[in-house]
Specification:
Helix content is 20%, strand content 38%. The chain is α+β, with helices and mostly antiparallel strands and 125 residues long. The chain has one domain. The strands form two sheets. The protein has a five-stranded antiparallel sheet. A four-stranded antiparallel sheet has the order 1-2-3-4, with no helix packed on it. A hairpin with a 4-residue loop joins strand 3 (40-45) and strand 4. The longest helix is centred in the N-terminal third of the chain and has 14 residues, at 2-15. It starts with a helix and ends with a strand. Residues 1-16 have low confidence and may be disordered.
């Protein structure tokens, strides 16, 4: 019964254009999946709506008071993992980040993590 209700509720949300999944990362940063749970992308809430920052599929995210880090596997065409980071000291309320660094490959991102002390990535499901 719960599964049926859950499927019905999720179907109604999708039909209404609401995200299938939304998860707060920190501050105004969210992981959103619009129509399919695999379409996870990083979004920034500008008050009354979100701005997409990094396209699907986000597979990992990290954060601290200074940075947001993101791991992404492109879906179309399928590609190798890409890595990004955002310097949060540039954040302004109701204004999306202006600079997103990346994409980096794993080696270049590891060097940036070491150089800047970027936060570790945690899996996003």
């Amino acid at each position: 019964m719960r599964a049926t209700f859950g499927l019905l509720a999720m179907s109604l949300l999708v039909a209404c254009g609401q995200p299938v999944r939304g998860e707060k990362v920190d501050g105004a940063y969210y992981i959103i999946a619009a129509d399919d749970p695999e379409d996870r992308h990083l979004s920034y809430d500008v008050g009354g709506g979100g701005i997409g920052l990094i396209e699907e599929t986000v597979t990992g995210v990290g954060h601290d008071s200074r940075y947001i880090t993101v791991e992404r596997r492109p879906r179309t065409p399928p590609g190798p993992l890409e890595y990004y980071y955002i310097d949060r000291t540039q954040d302004r309320p109701a204004d999306p980040p202006r600079v997103i660094e990346g994409p980096f490959d794993a080696t270049a991102f590891a060097a940036e993590q070491s150089r800047l002390g970027l936060p570790e990535l945690k899996p996003v499901h």
